[in-house]
Structure formats: structure tokens, C-alpha cells
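Feature request, filed as a ticket because there's no other form

It would be nice if the structure record came with a short human-readable summary line next to the C-alpha cells. Right now we just get the raw output. Example of a typical job, pasted below so the devs can see what we mean:
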Amino acid sequence: MNFQDKVIIVTGAAGGIGKEVVKKVVSGGAKVVLVDLNKEAIESVQSELQLTQDNSLVVQTDVSNEENVKNYVEQTIAKFGRIDGFVNNAGVEGPAKPIEEITEKEFDFVYGINVKGVLFGLKHVLPVMKQQNAGSIVNTSSVAGLTGAPSMVLYNSSKHAVMGINKVAALEAAAYNVRVNTVNPGVINTQMMRNIEANVSEDAEAAKHAYNDAVPMKRYGEPEEVANVIAFLLSDESSYVTSSSYTIDGGLFNV
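Raw output as currently delivered:
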């Protein structure tokens, strides 16, 4: 896909999906801003993908902190002058435990990243895109935003919130030629799934097999398969697509 000279921000850029998105859009000619809490990890991605100072920017960010979010947007404008695409991707899975055991600290942590991070990103990126009268935003939700799962109340409910935020943002942005969509990955072969497997069962390998067997396609998805859909939504090839939700789960969520 052609992203020649487009400027694209990716949060959670050190994670499995984020890294593959960066790789995909750079191969199409994009300039990228890699945002993550782990600066060493995103610098490693920058080095591994042989990104240069001319076509990339690394910004260490706590997305739950609005000033941090404002900072990565301001740094992007200062260096590249515009924002054509925004992948609002940073997220955490949180603890796996019954509702009655959830602590306020755990709630604040998960909602801080998964909900405040998404909302603050939109708050500061949308005005730039509206002024440009152009742009595409992809918010990463999950199949967890479409259904429920025992012991995953914080993750599930926070991803439901992302779906709601996306619908409002898409309506507010449409008149400015700015598109806002979500992707909803299922079980994807990333570190987050390793964490979930370990959290939901004392036997992580058995949990992995159970998740795998629940998927009609009988396998985990790969980060690249999610990145391919995100790239489509960022591209001009999806120019009439907004307020939509793309589920990438091998048929797992079948309603």
C-alpha cells in the first residue's frame, strides 16, 4: 500500500502488533512516530527495522498521562508538520480475577492505559487532522470488546469502552474527512496472550491449547495479519470506511 511521505503515529509500537504496523507502513514509504513506555524497546524496533532520523521519531510515553500524550503529538508536528495516520494501539490485559477481588489500583491502571490513553490520543490528534481536513485513525479494541469472559472484567469492559469512544469520535470527525475505525483482534501470537494464558490458568500451555481449539481456524493469528488490516484502514483504499469495526479472530467471535 502507498504511504509515501505520510506521517503515522503508532502507540504501543514495541508490542507485537505495533511493531508489525510500523514495519508495514514504513515499507510503503511512511514516516513513523514510535510511541511506547519502554524507550529501550522502541529504540530496538527503530534499529531492527533500520529506520533513520529522517523517517522516524521515538517518543517515550505513558499514554495514561495527558501531558505525555500532548507531548508526542507536539513532537510529531514539530518534526514532520502533520499527522496522516494514528494507530491508537497501546493496551494492557490487566489481572485475571473475579469482580469481587478487583482493586481500585488495578482498575486505575487498566483504564488509565486502555481508556484514558485512547481518549487522550483522540483529544490531541483529532484537532490536527480536522485542521488538515484529512486523516485516518485506527483504535485497537479486541474481541473482548464484543463479549464477556470470566475473570477478565477490566480488560473486557475497557475494550467495550474503546468501541463506544470510537463510535463517537467517528461521528464527530466525519465532516472533516477524518476516518475513525477499530480493529478487534482475537487470540494473536503476542506477549499479551502469553500473559493472559499464564494469568487464567496454572498451566499456561494447556490454556494456550484451549484457546487454540476454540478458534474455528484452529490456530492463533499472527501480528502481521492484524497489521495488514490496520494498514488497509490507514490507507486511501479505505477512503469511504469510517465508524466500522473489523474483527480479526479466525472466526472465534461468530454471532
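Something like this underneath would help us a lot:
Residues 7-186+223-248 form a domain with the Rossmann fold fold (CATH 3.40.50.720).
The first strand starts at residue 7 and ends at 11.
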